[in-house]
Amino acid sequence: MRTRKHAANEHSNAARNVLSEGMYGRIFPSHLEIIPQLNEVYELALAFYESQLLSEDDLVQNGAYFARVGKRLTRHYLMCTGEPVRLPKHSSSRLRSFFISNQFKTGYATHGLFPYRGKFHPQMIKALINVMGLKPGETVLDPMMGSGTVLIEASLMGIRSIGIDASPFCRFMTQAKLDGLVISQKPLHEALNNYEAIFNHFVETVGQSAQGSKAKSRSRGNHRGNIVREKSAQFETRGRNQYRKIISSDDEAVYNFLLLSYLDSAGYSERSNRKRPVEQFQKILERYVFVVEKIQRVLEGTESELAEARALKGDARYLPLEDQSVDGVLFSPPYSFAIDYLKNDSFHLNYLGEDISELKESMVGLRGRGLREKYDHYIHDMNQVLFECARVLRTGRFCTMVVGTNDRQLSKALAMPPEEVPGLHRILMDIAAKHSLTPVRQLARRISGIANTMRDEYILILEKI
Question: Which CATH superfamily is domain 114-167+306-464 in?
Answer without folding.
Answer: Vaccinia Virus protein VP39 (3.40.50.150)
